[in-house]
Backbone:
């Protein structure tokens, strides 16, 4: 793998760029020859008729650089390096004189140290400064000898021993001056020649790397930059050489398998077997070649645009693209046909499925109708048979179950009394439990409300203290800022006064020198010296005060700076305390939520135990209290929001005060750039704090709105749930009341039935007692109260029979409503017994 630099052209090109561009020229020539030879070899192997390809040969440019007979540039540089008094200017002059007529050499007239070489990628101007030193690259002989005595093979390979020198010594020939060292240019040419021999002895593959843009960013493609790189790399020339003859080629089998579909369908049907064999045929198969020739004659009309080789078919430029376009159109047509057939098959299948489904549905429907008719007739027959059997059974059962129902009614009345007493006792127990639960819950709610009020008052007091403390700090900071501005203004004034005094002193000294040079009398000179001394003493006297004020100003500035640092530390501490208070607030809210959840669980367990009516009342009361509690929480949140809005207003007032103070200081200290920058930074910090506070308040407001909406949703959901439960419980209460009324009516009916049974039993007992004689009766069938047992005043009454007694029992039972209508005809009633009958 050989990785080389690309073609280089900078604003200033030196010896390194000449070597790199020389190597690129040599590799470009090899690249062109490899492409040309590969094309020529393939055409000859395939038996293709072709014409000679003309391409740009850069051999003349290479001769300009490395040809020894014509003293190329590198040989001229080696010769100049061997001369002891050689210079870069002489090398440039020799290059101009030697190669002035060469077409690839150019020398600008304005710069004698510059020459230009017309490479294949473009004209490059080289500056000769430093060529000799870079070409020599000398190393001391002692160092070379030491490295040649190394035991490492890599070091020995880097510093080979000078065999030619030893041979010249052995032969006794004198050594040429300056020939004991090998220059960089000669080494480069030797190594490049060795590289070319290695390349010619191997199978070469070329990889060209293109940089899409100069910004080193993705998804950016600079077309002009990329085209310039392709031109410099020789790719465009290689493409031109490839496209001059037959740039596209393809094996016979591949062409048949890919483009046979463009032939007529009759030809495809006739050669279907041959095409299947051609796909698996080896390269150079005659059958595949003949099939490919036939397909080409049908597919391509212009015979001059292709040639058929021994194993491949060669195409002119743009022919393969046209075939690909035709193949794409054909495939699109076939795809439409396939889609049509597939849709037809799918819809046919769907139609068959729908038709089969409709037939099955009709069959199932007819079966269902017939089955329902059969079941109806069968049920009617069974019902008629059952009605007949039931009628006979009921007639017998009603005669036998009258006494059983009487006994059951009596036992049911006794059981209802016991159940009534038990339920009354249970209701009393539940009422007591509900009252105790209400008492404890009220106490817990009162304690929790008191704790919340205490906490809110404590937090309000702490926040008020913090607010007063922050207000005092901000006032103190504003006062210090005002003092600092005054001190700086005073310092500026004193510095201006000192500068004015110094300028006055210098002016006096200059005047003193002028007067001294113009006057010849010593007395005049002494007078001027006295005036200068007085002016100097006056300046020094005036400068004594400002120095003291400057020291005081510096001290006050340091004090102000310390106060600011102390205020910043206090502000950080207050921020940490505020964060701790917020964490404690969130913890207390979480505990309160847990307590409310626990109370809800307890309330739910009590509701499950309590009776329906008491549970409803407890739930309503509990939900009312929950709503009150939520109302209190909403009021607290509203108070919190109001407090936050007040804090926002206070912060906005503070920010407006800071802005006012900032603009006042800026108006006073317009000329002081340092102060303006500091105030600008302070303003930006204030704006950041304002934005942070506003963002915090907006987030808090959003959280409050979200919590309020969640609370409202929870409350509405709970109210709806409670309302549904209340409705269910009301329905249950109505059902219970209806059942109670039914039970009461049954009890009344049972009582009436009991009385009728008592009367009937008395009648039966009266009718069953009485031997063979009855007491005397008065005329009309009414016994006389004065009749005696042994008298025979009236005729005796006949005792009722058992059939009459049974008929009386049935009539009494049917009249009470406990039995149905009598199925048998009643017999005539016997006359009522006498009231005095035993």
Residues:
């Amino acid at each position: 793998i050989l990785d080389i630099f690309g073609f280089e052209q900078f604003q200033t090109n030196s010896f390194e760029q000449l070597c790199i561009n020389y190597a690129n020229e040599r590799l470009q020539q090899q690249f062109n020859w490899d492409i040309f030879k590969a094309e020529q070899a393939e055409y000859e192997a395939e038996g293709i008729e072709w014409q000679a390809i003309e391409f740009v040969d850069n051999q003349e440019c290479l001769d300009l650089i490395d040809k020894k007979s014509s003293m190329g540039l590198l040989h001229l540089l080696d010769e100049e390096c061997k001369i002891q008094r050689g210079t870069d200017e002489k090398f440039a002059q020799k290059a101009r004189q030697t190669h002035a007529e060469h077409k690839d050499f150019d020398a600008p007239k304005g710069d004698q140290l510059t020459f230009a070489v017309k490479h294949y990628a473009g004209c490059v101007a080289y500056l000769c400064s430093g060529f000799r030193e870079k070409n020599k690259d000398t190393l001391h002989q002692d160092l070379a000898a030491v490295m040649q005595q190394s035991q490492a093979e890599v070091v020995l390979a880097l510093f080979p021993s000078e065999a030619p020198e030893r041979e010249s010594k052995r032969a006794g020939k004198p050594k040429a001056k300056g020939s004991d060292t090998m220059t960089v240019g000669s080494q480069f040419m030797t190594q490049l020649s060795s590289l070319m021999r290695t390349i010619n002895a191997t199978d070469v593959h070329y990889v060209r790397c293109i940089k899409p843009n100069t910004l080193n960013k993705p998804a950016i493609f600079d077309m002009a930059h990329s085209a310039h790189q392709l031109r410099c790399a020789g790719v465009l020339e290689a493409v031109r050489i490839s496209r001059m003859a037959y740039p596209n080629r393809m094996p016979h089998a591949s062409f048949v398998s890919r483009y046979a579909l463009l032939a007529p369908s009759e030809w495809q049907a006739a050669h279907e077997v041959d095409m299947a064999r051609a796909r698996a045929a080896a390269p150079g198969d005659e059958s595949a070649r003949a099939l490919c020739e036939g397909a080409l004659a049908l597919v391509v009309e212009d015979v001059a645009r292709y040639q058929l080789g021994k194993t491949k078919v060669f195409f002119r430029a743009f022919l393969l693209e046209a075939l690909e376009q035709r193949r794409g159109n054909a495939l699109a047509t076939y795809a439409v046909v396939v889609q049509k057939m597939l849709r037809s098959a799918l819809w046919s299948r769907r139609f068959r499925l729908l038709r089969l489904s409709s037939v099955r549905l009709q069959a199932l429907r007819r079966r269902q109708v017939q089955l329902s008719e059969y079941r109806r007739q069968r049920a009617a027959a069974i019902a008629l048979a059952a009605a007949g059997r039931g009628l006979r059974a009921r007639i017998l059962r009603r005669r036998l179950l009258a006494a059983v129902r009487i006994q059951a009614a009596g036992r049911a009345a006794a059981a209802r009394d016991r159940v009534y007493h038990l339920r009354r006792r249970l209701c009393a127990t539940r009422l007591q439990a509900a009252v105790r639960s209400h008492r404890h819950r009220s106490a817990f709610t009162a304690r929790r409300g008191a704790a919340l009020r205490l906490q809110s008052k404590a937090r309000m007091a702490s926040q008020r203290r913090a607010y007063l403390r922050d207000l005092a700090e901000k006032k103190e900071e504003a006062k210090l800022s005002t003092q600092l501005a005054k001190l700086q203004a005073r310092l500026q004034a004193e510095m201006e006064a000192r500068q004015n005094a110094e300028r006055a002193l210098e002016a006096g000294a200059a005047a003193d020198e002028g007067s001294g040079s113009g006057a010849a009398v010593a007395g005049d000179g002494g007078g001027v010296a006295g005036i200068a001394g007085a002016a100097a003493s006056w300046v020094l006297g005036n400068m004594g005060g400002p120095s003291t004020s400057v020291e005081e100003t510096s001290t006050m500035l340091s004090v102000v700076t310390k106060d600011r640092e102390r205020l910043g530390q206090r502000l950080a501490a207050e921020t940490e305390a505020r964060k701790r208070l917020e964490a404690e607030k969130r913890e207390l809210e979480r505990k309160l939520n847990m307590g409310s959840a626990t109370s809800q669980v307890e309330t739910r367990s009590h509701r499950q135990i309590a009776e329906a009516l008491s549970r409803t009342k407890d739930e309503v009361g509990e939900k009312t209290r929950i709503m009150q509690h939520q109302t209190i929480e909403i009021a607290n949140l509203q108070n919190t929001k109001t407090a936050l809005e007040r804090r926002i207003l206070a912060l906005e007032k503070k920010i407006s005060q800071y802005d006012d103070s900032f603009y006042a200081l800026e108006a006073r200290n317009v000329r002081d750039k340092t102060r303006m920058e500091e105030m600008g930074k302070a303003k930006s910090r204030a704006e950041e704090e304002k934005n942070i506070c506003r963002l915090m308040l907006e987030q808090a407001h959003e959280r409050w709105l979200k919590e309020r909406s969640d609370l409202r949703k929870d409350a509405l959901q709970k109210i709806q749930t409670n309302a549904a439960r209340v409705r269910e419980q009301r329905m249950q209460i109505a059902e219970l009341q209806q059942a109670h009324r039914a039970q009461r009516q049954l009890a009344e009916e049972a009582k009436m039935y009991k009385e009728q049974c008592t009367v009937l039993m008395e009648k039966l007992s009266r009718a069953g007692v009485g031997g063979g004689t009855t007491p005397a009766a008065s005329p009309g069938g009414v016994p006389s109260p004065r009749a005696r047992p042994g008298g025979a005043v009236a005729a005796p009454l006949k005792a009722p029979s058992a059939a009459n007694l049974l008929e009386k029992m049935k009539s009494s039972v049917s009249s009470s409503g406990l039995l149905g209508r009598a199925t048998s005809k009643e017999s005539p009633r016997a006359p009522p017994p006498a009231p005095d009958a035993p």
About this structure: Residues 402-518 form the longest helix (117 residues). Residues 163-180, 516-549, 769-803, 812-838 have pLDDT under 50 and may be disordered. The beta strands are 105-106, 114-118, 123-127, 248-251, 306-308, 312-315, 777-778, 782-783. The first strand starts at residue 105 and ends at 106.
